[in-house]
Each structure stands twice: as structure tokens, then as C-alpha cells.
Amino acid sequence: MRKQALITLPLLLMLGYTLLAQNIQANAALAGGDDPKGDVHGARAPGPTDYALQPDYVIGPDDVLVVNVWKEPEISRTVLVRPDGRITLPLVGDIEATGFTGGQLQATVKQKLKHYLGNPEVTVIVQEVRSRQVNVVGEVVKPGSYNLTRPTTVLDLIATAGGFREFAKIKKVYVLRMENGTPRKLKFNYKQVILGRQLQQNVQLDTGDTIVVP
Hints:
The chain is an alpha+beta fold. It has helices at residues 2-31, 102-117, 154-160, 190-194; strands at residues 64-69, 77-80, 86-89, 93-96, 122-128, 133-138, 144-147, 173-179, 182-188, 210-213. The chain folds into 3 domains: 1-31; 33-45 and 131-213, Outer membrane lipoprotein wza fold like (Roll), CATH 3.10.560.10; 51-128, wza like domain (wza like fold, 2-Layer Sandwich), CATH 3.30.1950. Helices cover 27% and strands 25% of the residues. β3 and β4 form a beta hairpin.
């Protein structure tokens, strides 16, 4: 009986250590990883819907649109919204695209084509969002400008930029945002956020925001 107990005790200890290690790894994954200076990329659950798929998305310059007219391949095409906010289509000519949703632009194109095609079936799809951009500067692996294609937080964009460099001051990150022509600094303490504190600092980014990593 004593011999059996001596054999069982190490097995129980090993099982306990295994469960503890798994728990630590799970907590680390939820917190964003063990090393805040390393790459914060990783598998993530499906995020919010892409802006291009949202019916109320407002088209902007540089967005890519697919205009399809049923049974009219010579009119159907993929177009880039020009910096002046307009696109060009056969028979239709130049029309304003910025400031409209895909559905609104679709109705405009259909109305203009009625003079030539009777009752055309038109669809307008936003294929790629390029008009919403944000910037990351400073001590990240890949600083630069990024297209804001879906609702994105500060933590999301830092991950997209490859994470922090070795000497980044991760407690002093901030978002520079223009509000009514006035710059505003929004503090972001990475260590606090990944520990589940000060989560309100992990704001959703707006077009034109710049994340600064000292």
C-alpha cells in the first residue's frame, strides 16, 4: 500500500504542474503574450465586419469599386475613385462617387443608364477600402501608413505593425488625433491594457489617427 502511494504521488505532482503550465499559457495568450517587446501577431477570433461589407459605408477617394451591369460586360468594370472623388463609366461619363454609399451610387448609375438601356440591373460593390488611413510612427517593427479596412483598435494596429522594437517605451504610447482642427493626445499604456486595466485606452481608431511609440 505504501509502495502504491509513493508511485501515485509523483504522478499527481506531474499532473498538477501540467495543468498549471497550461493555465499560465492561456492567461499569457489572453494578455497578448509573454514578451511585450516581441511580435504581437497571433491567431484571433473573427473581427468586426469589414467596412466594405457595411451597407452604410460612405465611399471615399482611392476606394476600389466594382460596377456590374447585368448582360452588359462592355459597361461593367472595376474602377478606382479618383482624388477628385469621381469615377468614369461608359455611357454615363464622369459621376461623383465620394460621399455616397454603394447603394446610393448604384441608384445614380441605374438612373443615368435608363436613357440607353431601358431598365438596367446595376450593382455597385466596394471591393477595397483605401480612403481610410492611419499611421504608426516610432519604435515599431513596421512603421508607416495602413488602410483602415475594418473597425480597428490601437492594439490591433500595433499588432499589424509587427509589435514593438526592443527599446520602445510601451507605457508612453499615445494616439495623436485631430478634432475640429485641434490635435489631441490619447494615452495608451500597453502594459496596463494587456493586464486588463485601463481598457478604455484601447480606443477604436479614426481616419487620420497617428499612433506614436516613443
